[in-house]
Design a protein that fits this description.
This protein is mostly helical. The protein contains 3 helices and no strands. The protein starts with a helix and ends in an 8-residue tail after the last helix.
Length: about 190
């Protein structure tokens, strides 16, 4: 075979091997990086698992408190109803029968207000606890992300082009009514979006 052709073929083969080796090296490095990221994902899964366990605990505690508060409210309502019935039984005439429930309204209302405040306190306490859990989890997740070193991305700043100056044209007075009529007839009325 011709030595020039053999040299060309061997040079092309060497270039092909070099490109192949470079592609393999790049694929290996990217695969290793992907493996590191997947491994680091375990931390996030564990963190989210801990969060779900903590949220479940908050849910159970809150449900327990709510059930106790509902029982308390029910007992207070039964007491108020029983108080109204006993007042009605003790009434000697129609006037005292009508006045007695009205006298008991402030006492019953204060019980209702206290029960409502207690229920609201349970909700607010649970919300605060959940918010703190989420804050801690987000901080923990952000901390685990900082462990993985990322290459700084090159940011391109957008360059604004200067605005082109507008040319002012003078309209003739005679053309003004004609153009106004044309503009008015070409305007379409579009319905407003709700």
């Amino acid at each position: 075979m011709n030595p020039q052709i053999e040299n060309s073929i061997s040079r092309i083969a060497e270039q092909a091997r070099g490109r192949f080796q470079k592609a393999i090296k790049t694929a290996r490095s990217r695969t290793e990086l992907a493996a590191e990221r997947v491994t680091d994902g375990k931390k996030s899964v564990k963190t989210l698992s801990k969060l779900s366990l903590k949220l479940t605990a908050v849910t159970h505690r809150t449900a327990d408190k709510v059930l106790k508060q509902q029982t308390k409210m029910l007992v207070h309502q039964i007491d108020a109803f029983a108080g109204n019935l006993s007042a009605a039984a003790e009434a000697t005439n129609i006037r005292s029968l009508v006045k007695m429930p009205f006298r008991m309204i402030p006492e019953n209302a204060s019980l209702f207000v206290n029960d409502a405040r207690s229920a609201l306190g349970i909700v607010v306490g649970a919300g605060t606890e959940v918010r703190e859990l989420f804050k801690g989890t987000v901080m923990e997740l952000r901390g685990s992300r900082k462990v993985v070193a990322k290459k700084p991305a090159s940011k391109k700043t957008a360059v604004k082009k200067p605005a082109k100056p507008r040319k002012k044209t003078a309209k003739k007075k005679a053309d003004a009514p004609v153009t106004a009529k044309v503009e008015a007839s070409s305007v379409e009325v579009q319905p407003k979006a709700a």
